[in-house]
Automatic annotation (TrEMBL):
The lineage of its organism: Eukaryota, Metazoa, Ecdysozoa, Arthropoda, Hexapoda. It is a multi-pass membrane protein. This is Long wavelength sensitive opsin. One of its GO terms (biological process) is visual perception. The chain crosses the membrane at residues 48-75, 87-105, 125-146, 166-188, 215-238.
Length: 374
């Protein structure tokens, strides 16, 4: 069992914070070679911050593991939800599950000791896992957006997504994520302790071009390229939905009826609702990870003074994204809510309508069964 570590600075703890102490003073000797000189100018953080960070990451970890575990269980266990498109949803939940399963407990331990106590190798693995699962999540969301584009915009001319194709895309996602996040383990950049010394991530303070080039290239392929692909997809999705709704209203007006909502039209509406869910999930991802990207760019371009507290909160905010997705699906996905109500009735606040009365009930299977015209 890990005991209370003994540090030479422990005699000063009763003297308060600041003085000649720095945030690096508590770092174990075997970790000092990984700490950038930038952090030596900052005083130790108040233990209350460590306690708060440990509590928050612990709660987020529990909620994420339970929530994403339920998503995986329900989408894999319900026959009506086992469609090619939903394989991507399961992959997203799996990535988010692993993100907090590997990130939460180590940070809680380190917040208790107020420094990284798990050794250099685990620091590198911690940074790599965070980067790996974040990369897998965003590229999964990108393929989800492309799938919505294929179904809604291309319609009948689109090639249906098969389970084989979905599995190949998932394999590609993990292969890309593995290559990009393994690079710092072999000398292209490196994984180092974050500012408050309780978590690890990419080195954005070393000013060599070898180190900076990794941040620039990685951010392009794992942030900007997925972002532009998603914007492209949803731009045409919104246009197709608007054109379809306008056509429906004009036909209804000519026929002097209130609505032309047929079964096929309802399925089209269901596809649009599913696209909205995907868009909400993706928007939350970018809101979560953008502050961490800004921190990295601030470091490599020396744009401002980065404090330990700012870096760890940006890192924590990014990891919190793993909590959002099960909540989004719990609120917005009717068929998921129906299955959740059947399996865990105490977790559903309001009963979900039956499939025959839910406009979005066929949203997850329509892409497999029939392509909808734009």
């Amino acid at each position: 069992m890990m005991g209370e570590p003994s540090f030479p600075w422990s005699v000063h703890r009763s003297g308060g914070f600041g003085g000649n102490l720095t945030v690096v003073d508590k770092v174990l000797p075997d970790m000092l070679h990984m700490v950038h000189p930038h952090w030596y100018q900052f005083p130790p953080m108040n233990p209350l911050w460590h306690g708060l960070l440990g509590f928050v990451i612990g709660v987020l970890g529990f909620v994420s593991v339970m929530g994403n575990g339920m998503v995986i269980n329900i989408f894999c266990g319900a026959k009506s939800l086992r469609t090619p498109s939903n394989l991507l949803v399961v992959n997203l939940a799996f990535s988010d599950f692993l993100m907090m399963f590997t990130m939460s407990a180590p940070m809680v331990i380190n917040c208790y000791y107020e420094t990284w106590v798990l050794g250099p190798l685990f620091c590198e693995l911690y940074g790599m896992f965070g980067s790996l699962f974040g990369c897998a999540s965003i590229w999964t969301m990108t393929f989800i957006a492309l799938d919505r584009y294929n179904v809604i915009v291309k319609g009948l001319s689109a090639k249906p997504l098969t389970k084989k194709t979905a599995m190949l895309r998932i394999l590609l996602i993990w292969a890309m994520a593995g290559v990009w996040t393994a690079a710092p383990m072999f000398g292209w950049n490196r994984y180092v302790p974050e500012g408050n010394m309780t978590a690890c991530g990419t080195d954005y303070l070393t000013q060599s071009w070898l180190s900076k080039s990794y941040i620039l290239v990685y951010s392009f392929f794992v942030y900007f390229l997925p972002l532009f692909t998603i914007i492209y997809s949803y731009w045409f999705i919104v246009q197709a939905v608007a054109a379809h709704e306008k056509s429906m209203r004009e036909q209804a007006k000519k026929m002097n009826v209130a609505s032309l909502r047929s079964s096929e039209a309802s399925q089209t509406s269901a596809e649009c609702k599913l696209a909205k869910i995907a868009l909400m999930t993706i928007t939350l991802w970018f809101f979560a990870w953008t502050p961490y990207l800004v921190t990295n760019y601030t470091g490599i371009f020396e744009g401002a003074k980065i404090s330990p507290l700012a870096t760890i909160w940006c890192s924590l905010f990014a990891k919190a994204n793993a909590v959002y997705n099960p909540i989004v699906y719990g609120i917005s996905h009717p068929k998921y809510r129906q299955e959740l109500q059947r399996r865990y009735p105490s977790l559903v606040c309001a009963p979900e309508p039956d499939d025959t009365t839910s406009a979005a009930s066929g949203a997850t299977s329509v892409g497999e069964e029939k392509q909808i015209p734009a």
